[in-house]
Amino acid sequence: GQYAVKYARRRYREIRQKWLKEGE
GO molecular function, one example (predicted)? Predict the structure, then answer.
């Protein structure tokens, strides 16, 4: 449902930020 999409998007954003921080 929409809730799953919202949760997945939030998780994706968090993981992406983690990668950017580690990549620097």
Answer: DNA binding
